[in-house]
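Cross-posting from the chemistry board since nobody answered there.

I work mostly on the small-molecule side, so proteins are not my area. We synthesized zinc ion and want a rough idea of how it might sit in this target. Sequence and SMILES are below. Is it possible to get a predicted 3D structure of the two together?
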Amino acid sequence: MLCCCVAVLHPYRHILGLWQPDIGPYGGLLNVVVDGLFIIGWMYLPPHDPRVEDPMRRRPLFRIHMWESKKATVECMYGHKGPHKGDIQTVKKDEFSTKCNQTDHHRMPGGRQEEFRTWLEEEWGRTLEEIFHEHMQELILMKFIYTSQYDNCLTYRRIYLPPLMPSDLLQPGLFKGTYGSHGLEIVMLSFHGTSARATKLTGDPNVPAGQLTLDVDLSRPVVLPDLEHQRQIEELSRLVLGVHEEVQREVEQQARVALLQSVVQQWGPVVVPAAERKRWT
Ligand SMILES: [Zn+2]
């Protein structure tokens, strides 16, 4: 109870909740929570590929020691040498920045080589030798070079989870997804009328964080074949193309009706001259 009161009164109370770091195409998920006399910023990471069923992993990026309601100490938790001096600034509503004041604490005695090996072990649970695919090795190295240059000096934007509506097929919110050579990623599912959309919270150079990765038309049901046939890409393509053609036909039909209506409106009812009528009878 005491902790809740401290958190509510505390000047850093506005940074509690879910946030997305601005870190190029990679994004991420930060959860800021009260833990005893600390406010801790946990970076959530998806499980190691391909174990999508495993729980999320997390590591602390900063903590704020709440001595009293008006005074606090910010510590950077990045690296492997324990907490050290850091800073937090609120830029504007729904945005804050973290800064490390002792980035030498992030360095390792073995230099960049050791830092890369350690990062790889944490991020992928593997060594570079175990990742045979050359393209994948390049993607991983690129992510390390890009993300490590920030040294825990990051700007975060608040994440608003979509509310559950009675019409939703399932609970909207955060999901883990497999993205081939990019590993596992976190997406946010939301419903908008007759479409379901998934936006990336973590991303890659192919589809960056913040962009749409799925847009599903829920207006017409698709009956999937049994699991065995779902593995055949031709069968699925045929199914999707069939629905696509059906939609196309409906759109064309609607366009024809609209055209006829506009012709009738423009010209009024067709009046057959008396001479013509005579010829027909
Ligand atoms: Zn630091």
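Reply from a structural biologist on the board:
Welcome over. Reading the output above for you: Residues 1-5 have pLDDT under 50 and may be disordered. Residues 76, 78-79, 84, 86, 100, 102-103, 105-106, 152 surround zinc ion (CB under 6 Å). Happy to explain the token format if needed.
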